[in-house]
Structure formats: C-alpha cells, structure tokens
Specification:
The protein has one domain: NAD(P)-binding Rossmann-like Domain (Rossmann fold). The protein has 254 residues and is an alpha/beta fold. The chain starts with 11 loop residues before the first strand and ends in a 7-residue tail after the last strand.
Amino acid sequence: MANANSDLKKRVALVTGASRGLGAATARKLAACGARVAVNYFGSEGLARGVVDSIKSAGGTAEAFAADVRDEAAVARMVSAIERLWGPVEIVVANATGPQPMLRLEDLSWQACLDQLEFFVKSPVLLAQAVVPKMKQRRYGRFINITSEVFERGVPEFSNYVSAKGAQLGLTRSWARELAPWGITVNAVSPGWIPTERHAGDAQSAKDTYAAEVPLRRMGVPEELADAVAFLASDAAAFITGQKLSVNGGNTLE
C-alpha cells in the first residue's frame, strides 16, 4: 500500500477538505510517500496550517490553499496558485464535505439535496475541469473521489446524502472510461463510518453498535482510508480505473 517514501516522489497532489479528519490523514500519507501536497481548506486556516506544519516536521512538502471548492472561480484560482508553486496538479483527492443532516422523507427539501450535490457532484466537476486539460497533455493523472458505503447500505433518513454519494460514484465510472485514453485513472475510495473530529459528539453506544455489525468487529481509522488513497495514487495502481475500493472491514460485499 504505497509505503515507500519515494513512491509518489515529486508528484503534485491536491487534497480538498484537508484541514482535519480523513483529508488531513490523506494529506499526511501522500506527503510521506513523497508527494508535494496542496492542503485545501475553506474556513479552518489554523487547522490547515497545523497539517502543513506536521508534514514539514516529518520531512515532507506541503502548503495550505484556501478555496471554496463549490465555487468555480475559487477552484481556478487555487489550481493556478498550485501550478505557480509546483507545476501541474497530477493527483486530486476530492474529499471536501459539509454538514450532513439526517432528514426524514417528510422533512426533505430539494435544497437539502442540492446542498449535498454541491460537494459531491459540482465540486468534483470543477476540480476535474481545472486539472484534466494538463493531465491530458502529460498523459498522466490520478483522480480519486471519496465516496461512502451509505450508497450500498441505503441508510434511512439520509437520502439527501446517499443520493449525492451515488451520483459521485456515477461520475467516477463515467470519467474513468472517458479519460482512460490519456492515461488518467479515476477511482473511488468508499469508507465506512470512520470516526473523526466531526463525530466527537456522537454517542459511544451508536459507535459500538455499528462496530459490532462490521465483520472485522471494529471501526476504521483515518490512516486506513489514507493508505487506500495512496495506493490508488501510486504506480502500483496504474492499471486500475473506474473502481470503488471499500474501506469498511467487510461491511459491504460486492
């Protein structure tokens, strides 16, 4: 799983929503594998700079880049800034997310669905449009969407989020076929419930119940998601595209 420090040496990687949680763990892992990592954040500059500092302290290369990845102009500015610093973006990890409210069907609004689609369809589209032209020129690229097991599990009272994650998987599969002639791979990593800072207020009993149903009888940790991303970003995964790699202890089987 992309453990060699030189595996991604000098590759330019962008991880969105990387100021904490799964994004931060992924940024650290890619940097440990040798990539120059753009740590994207929106409202948490201090946390993002903390991630950058931790990467630099470990001998890696990273910088923080502010952008609302739902905004076309902001994405274009961020990608241009990364290119000025390091050159074209070669690896994108579309991880950014926002609030994820549970909503009964009776309380569901179209706006609640759009709020999720902004992160899981619009943002990947904007990111891809900003980086793919130069990936095509170089005939190399890695685009990795962070999806979720909720699509397979059909979690109730969560259809706003579940449907958007299903749409993101659809992007992954279609783009994989479209971009393959240029040597660009497009894959998804689909985590189960991996506790991060956003879950600090969740009841331990709910976590215990979930873990008891997982075949491996535990919840994952962010570093395990990051390992999967690093593998798909590496040369070892050069012949893998259009796939979804589930990181959930066997909670879904496909």
